[in-house]
Amino acid sequence: MGAKRPRRLTVTQQIMQEVEKQLKSKNYPNEKTYKTYLHHARRYVQFCRENYNCRSYEECSNLEFAQGYCDALKENYAPSSIHLFMISVTSTFNLPIRKIDKPRRCTAEYTRGRKQKFAPQTAEDLNDLKWSYLVDFQRAAGLRRMELMRLCGRNFKQDESGYWCIEIEKGKGGKYQLQRLNSDEDVEFVRKYFEAVGPDEKIFPPELFRNRLNLHKLRADSAREFYFQSLKKLQRNPAYAEQMEREIRARWEKYNIDKRTGEPKKFNPEKYRGYHVLRGKNRELAMKNGMPGKYHKMCLLYTSIMKLSHWRCSVAVNSYINIDF
Q: How high is the pLDDT of residue 324?
């Protein structure tokens, strides 16, 4: 018998081979980003095949087709989800995202971690003793789920200003970060977890993550507490603003590096004077939840950098502090 002929690829499979080649050439920071982009690129390719009879990667790389896909998504998805899908598509097919007419996002309408997304019993599960070893740590730490899963005994160290922090070797986007705790009591509580295992041993066993616990809520709670603690210190002692600025600058110059130049990005403290004022639906959400309509910019930046490692005031207030659980 002769050798079997290699299986002939379908048109979609041929396009996806080129898609994978393109994605691998871009060197995304982690495997999760690659898989997310690949997933949404595959959905877009299927849309192009069904609606425009595209037969190659080049034919799919059409701004008009991408706009058609975006318009079709509006029927079933929220604006924030559409932005994620379209960033995946435009990055994969080298299209300018700014030329896509997308629905406008509003952080007040985000659903991640909010009460309407979770079953009623999920919040109660946070008080279940079955999960207490993980939940008690998360109340003090406020990390992402994947960051909790990766923690080892070696990941507890002092930062550039002498504060004890949880070290995240590979956080969101593959970024290194040092996350502060809210109090000396939290430091001593968390320290025991790290001392209980060897340097290369995981803090938590995998089975503690086989759940749908709303750990993101606890992350937001911890960030909110950090912000208001900083604000109270500032209100008691206005000179505390100078200390915050020094610590921000020290962290900024060490870790907020421009990839193109290898130098620290410019830090302009004048941008963080005064207050960040909420408007529109974000303000409505704040009033509904009994939260402030404005937030001190320096305290926000301090929270964003030291507690969340986002480096943006707007993310800290709209996605963590001013949210509805």
A: 63
Q: Which amino acid is at 107?
A: T
Which of 291, 258, 257 lies closest to 277, judged by CA?
291
Domain residue ranges in the chain: 11-105, 116-321
Confidence band for 234, pLDDT divided at 50, 70 and 90? very high
Q: Give the separation between CA 168 and CA 156, rounded to whole angstroms.
A: 9
Average pLDDT value for the chain: 88
Confidence of residue 160 (pLDDT cuts 50, 70, 90): very high
What is the rounded radius of gyration, in angstroms, for the C-alpha atoms of the chain?
Answer: 23
Checking 99-102 for CB contacts under 8 A at 24+ apart, the result is 99/63, 100/63, 100/66, 100/67, 100/70, 101/67, 101/70, 102/70
Per residue in 262-308, pLDDT (tens digit) is: 888 888 989 899 999 988 888 888 888 888 889 999 999 999 999 99
CA distance 151 to 83: 31
User: Any idea which residue has 């435009």 for tokens?
Assistant: 90
Across 13-50, b (16+ Cβ under 10 Å) vs e yields: eebbebbeebbeeeebeeeebbebbbebbbebbebbbe
Check residue 119 and give its pLDDT: 52
Say if strands 275-277 and 164-168 run parallel, antiparallel, or are unpaired. Answer: unpaired
